[in-house]
């Protein structure tokens, strides 16, 4: 994996958890708006919107660089629109990055997959 691909995956991973948190906070603010006089929906809506747009941009960049199959790319996109999906995306991306580091080290040491 080259540096630009690793950077694209890292950016996607770093924005996925905050995007999930902002989505959950937006849902809480929506409930509070309907049940109390507290209305933070405009602020949280904007914060979540910016984070979602960043997620989609970073997702598209990662898909372009990694050449994911359509199924994998669709999975990461669907995870972005689920309330806690960003947490799962972050975990899967972290695991994939760790696996790539292990594979890279094995290639450097000349270990061949059996």
From TrEMBL:
Record flagged with keyword Transmembrane helix: yes
Pfam families registered for this protein in UniProt: DUF3817
PANTHER family: MEMBRANE PROTEIN, MEMBRANE PROTEIN-RELATED
Topology of the protein relative to the lipid bilayer: Multi-pass membrane protein
Entry's localization field: Cell membrane
UniProtKB keywords: Cell membrane, Membrane, Transmembrane, Transmembrane helix
Domain DUF3817: residue ranges: 9-95
Domain of life: Bacteria
Protein name: DUF3817 domain-containing protein
Residues annotated as transmembrane: 39-60, 72-89
């Amino acid at each position: 994996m080259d540096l630009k691909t690793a950077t694209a995956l890292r950016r996607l991973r770093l924005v996925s958890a905050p995007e999930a948190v902002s989505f959950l906070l937006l849902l809480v603010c929506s409930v509070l708006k309907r049940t109390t006089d507290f209305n933070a929906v405009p602020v949280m809506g904007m914060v979540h919107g910016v984070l979602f747009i960043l997620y989609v941009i970073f997702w598209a960049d990662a898909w372009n660089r990694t050449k994911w199959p359509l199924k994998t790319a669709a999975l990461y996109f669907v995870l972005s629109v689920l309330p806690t999906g960003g947490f799962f995306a972050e975990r899967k991306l972290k695991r994939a990055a760790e696996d790539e580091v292990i594979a890279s080290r094995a290639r450097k040491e000349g270990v061949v997959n059996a």
